[in-house]
UniProtKB/TrEMBL annotation:
Species: Olea europaea subsp. europaea
Annotated localization: Endoplasmic reticulum membrane
Protein name in UniProt: Translocation protein SEC62
Gene Ontology biological-process entries: post-translational protein targeting to membrane, translocation
Keyword Transport: yes
Principal cellular location given in the protein's record: endoplasmic reticulum
Family the UniProt entry places it in: Belongs to the SEC62 family.
Transmembrane segments: 140-162, 169-199, 234-251
Amino acid sequence: MYLKSNPMPSSIFQKQAAKKDVFQIFAEKVRDHKNLESRWAVLQETRVEYFRGKDFVSFLRNHPDLKNILESDRNLEIEDIGDILLRKNLIVRCDRVVKTLRPGKKKLSTWPAHLELFSEQVFSDNDAFFAWTFVNRWPLWQTLLSFFWPVLTIAICLFPVYPHRCKLFILYFCAGLLLLILTLLLLRAFVFGSLWILLGKRVWIFPNILAEEATLKELFQFWPKKDEDERPKWTARLFYTIVAVVVILLLRHHAPDEAARARYQKRVSNIIDDVLEWSPSLALSGMMEKQTVFNATDPDSNVTDGSKTTTEQTAQPEDVEGDIITDEHEVEQPIENSEDTDHQ
């Protein structure tokens, strides 16, 4: 007697295969969350995004609702969740490359720029770093931005054909933006140099304005973090003060005079006027004028003959002029001879 097996429907296997791993979804949600602080670093010649173990623990304690994504595993401890993420190769534990204090530093960097793999892939919140191993999906704004860049490139290339008012607006906007950036950078340098020389403090206002990876909030952060480095020596401050004074005096001595500035301003204004006043109609009219002048001339075969006749015609007035001059000399000579005879 044979028992007829009752196989599971194929639809169940398809659903299980299509079902995404809950820990993968959990890792994507955690990575995209704004409250989990992370940085970028170099791991084995590859740029990776990483976070600290203690930040991960405090993040999940403040957002326990994210553990509901794990369904049946939502009651696991945070350390166990971290170990599962390590086993599934969603994260990898790293360690700082530089493990010794640099001269003048009191403690190691909070966010190192270079990492290496840690020997034991176990979750820990004690000075441990973890890098994401999967490629994060692009948000909607990055996708739209990828389509916007080619349009912006074409718009920049079409700048010469814009209307005059549009050109003026773009010119003043770009000039104002460039002036704002230069003013901000000079102000940062002036504040840093003044406080460093006078008080020995390293204060960079807008500390993240030149950062490669920073959020919009971090980018416009005004006041920097507390300076934890050792104060510079008074000899170094005095030396750089003398250097700064000498540089300022040299710049003032070799500054251009009023006439040179006026010439430079006129040259720049002429270049800007040429760019602003150019239009396709003027360019086409200039090309048509050149074409009409070229068509008015003789063909190439008769160009040499025409040049010969013109040279002969130009040579004739010179000969006539030479004859006139010789005749004048001949007329003047008898007059002088007659005057000599009268004196005698």
